[in-house]
Design a protein that fits this description.
By secondary structure, the chain is mainly α. It is about 85% helix and about 0% strand. The longest helix has 25 residues, at about 5-25.
Length: about 120
């Protein structure tokens, strides 16, 4: 790989990170919604790997957002602890199922969630 190609790939990685971080920080969620298609279509990463990579990337992005929200007193730590407990159990369970679920089903489920979230955001 030539020097310019390496720079181009690193630029794409940084750009994808900036975009997903900005979306996640602005809306409090949604970075992965942008990250998955960009990793797949722009960086040509295998679709199944994009879902796993998205989770790895969004964790520090969410942590950064949490720090900002904490500084602005935007949440109740006790509520967050309760949500986190359920989220951790759900995350572990889904992580164990991830390798057993076909990529096409994951993609379709992701699409349905995006549509439902879009409808909710547009009308409620």
């Amino acid at each position: 790989m030539e020097k310019s190609e390496k720079f181009s790939e690193k630029f794409k990685l940084v750009a994808v990170g900036l975009l997903s971080g900005a979306v996640n920080g602005l809306f409090g969620t949604g970075g992965g919604m942008l990250l998955v298609p960009l990793l797949r279509d722009w960086l040509h990463i295998d679709e199944k790997k994009t879902f796993a990579l998205s989770v790895c990337v969004i964790l520090p992005v969410c942590a950064a957002g949490l720090i900002v929200y904490m500084a602005k007193d935007g949440y109740n730590p006790l509520d967050a602890a309760a949500f986190s407990a359920g989220g951790i159990v759900g995350g572990i369970t889904a992580g164990k199922l991830f390798g057993k679920v076909p990529v096409s089903l994951i993609g379709k489920a992701f699409g349905v969630l995006l549509i439902l979230g879009g409808i909710r955001a547009a009308f409620f």
